[in-house]
């Protein structure tokens, strides 16, 4: 398992966000990036992860495509990056950055209303 702090994971996530094209960055509203330890059994059940599979990240919120006119004063959506599985898979700091980028882009896809099948087709 690679040794990297939660602060380093947050910094990596901020760098990935900073690298997004402005047209996407400017549309990020009411969403926070959180570093969690590991997914709960409920998280795993919610997304259908079973057996030895693991979950590296999770989007919790209301996708932009389904927010109505009355969407206001809502708590922030969350994109959770799970540090323990990311650290256990990564073999180098470069791997960490690549994993954080891929997971963050996947979860941002959900934020923008893209489903898992389409994200897989796109390589995320």
Task: Explain briefly what this protein structure is.
The chain has six helices and three strands, in the order H-H-E-H-E-E-H-H-H. With 124 residues, the protein is of the alpha+beta class.
What does the model show?
By secondary structure, the chain is α+β, with helices and mostly antiparallel strands. It has a single domain (6-63, 75-121), classed as Zincin-like. It is built from 6 helices and 3 strands. The chain has a 3-stranded mixed beta sheet. Helix 1 crosses helix 5.
Descriptors for this entry?
alpha+beta; 13% strand; Zincin-like; three-stranded mixed beta sheet; globular; 6 helices; 124 residues
Percent helix:
40-55%
Low-pLDDT runs: none
Distance between the termini: 23 Å
Structural class: alpha+beta
Largest sheet: 3 strands, mixed
Order of helices and strands: HHEHEEHHH
Number of strands: 3
Quaternary state of this entry equals: single chain
Structurally, the number of domains stands at 1
Under the CATH scheme, which class? Alpha Beta
What is the overall shape? globular
Instruction: Say what the CATH topology is.
Output: Zincin-like
- Which percent band covers the strand fraction? 5-15%
Mean pLDDT, nearest integer?
Answer: 91
How many H/I helical runs? 6
- For the largest sheet, list the strands in their spatial order: 1-3-2
Mind telling me the C-alpha Rg?
A: 14 Å
Q: Supply the CATH architecture.
A: 2-Layer Sandwich
Q: Topology of this structure?
A:
Layout: H1 6-18, H2 22-25, E1 31-36, H3 41-47, E2 57-60, E3 77-82, H4 83-89, H5 93-111, H6 116-121
């Amino acid at each position: 398992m690679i040794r990297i702090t939660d602060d380093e994971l947050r910094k990596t996530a901020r760098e990935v966000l900073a690298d997004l094209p402005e047209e996407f960055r400017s549309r990020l509203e009411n969403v926070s990036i959180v570093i969690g330890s590991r997914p709960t059994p409920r998280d795993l059940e919610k997304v259908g992860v079973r057996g030895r599979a693991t979950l590296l990240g999770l989007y919790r919120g209301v996708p932009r495509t389904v927010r109505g006119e009355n969407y206001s004063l809502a708590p922030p959506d969350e994109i959770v990056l799970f540090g323990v599985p990311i650290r256990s898979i990564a073999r180098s700091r470069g791997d960490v950055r690549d994993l954080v980028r891929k997971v963050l882009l996947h979860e941002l896809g959900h934020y923008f209303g893209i489903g898992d099948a389409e994200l897989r087709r796109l390589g995320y």
